[in-house]
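Archive record:
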Amino acid sequence: MVDDRSFRIVFAGGGTGGHLFPAIAIADEIKRERQDAEITFIGTKERIEARVIPAHGYHFAPIIVSGFRRRLTVGNLLFPFKVLVGLVQSFTLMRKLRPDVVVGTGGYVCGPPLYAASVLGIPTVIQEQNSYPGVTTRLLARRATEVHLTFESSKKYFPRQDNLHVSGNPTRSTVGTITREEGIRRFGLDPERKTLLVFGGSLGATSINNAMMRILPELADTMQVLWQTGESDYERASAATSTSPSRMVKVFKFIEQMAYAYAACDLAVCRAGATTVAELARAGVPAILVPYPYAAADHQTENARAMVETGAAVLIADYDLQTQLGDTVNTLMRSAERRSGMVDRARSLVQGDAARIIAQAILRLIKN
């Protein structure tokens, strides 16, 4: 019987925090249910998962694989070779790890492991965060044992319907459990000043960073700023804040403890990735959402729709950032009453415990 030994589960997903953190949330929930579960994450050495997964105490197995860009690049010329290498490595890992189930949470890195598992007859589970499913999800959904969606509206993109489940988007269990005092203390902020949290996802967003550099002088006099820039804009942003008091503007390439950042802030400016939107709702953070304008099928705008329509967030189009961001931030920061209402509306959008629902579905697959 399978219950006589440890459950072996492989997760594949990464490239961005939006794909990675739902996987970690599910894995953590599985560990709460089955402490003896053997969990391995597959990813690439070059992206966020190589740093974050070991820090969370999980085994990390790297493969070579990359995405396909919509323009002629050297990387695209190597794409077929990398896919082949990733497939060979994935088949090797499946035979070595002998998992009971393989879980993919999106991004190109989960393609080879999910395909290899399905060919070998290993049950596979896909978790899709976005309203418009990613390429990997759409390609492999027919072969998957179960596909867990965040949005009911996503079902129309799948020819096969019998393996679809609407379960919500898993969020990190610490989000929404940290007090403001703990968040303020973690970042060394002034508890008497309002805090603006700015981030563009785990990789940063240049258009948001550019707009922030423009309005920073007027903001620094009235509030303090936690600013995650991403790797590419960190030096520019640091230079732009060199004349500001260090306690008023704190710049990071990447904020590891986002639960504390959410707790510390009074308002967030960010992209509208599905995982970001789900975490904002769970933490009850009023937000200015700036959907990534080149997302497939404009799915970030769709992701943001519920928060904007209920009044939990304000939407600014990417092309309007330079002219609208400063006034919008100042208007919201001046109205404690409006922000308080946005907090309540954000929390009202929290779906069921998606991480627990999907974890239990995975454990049922193994037991059956």
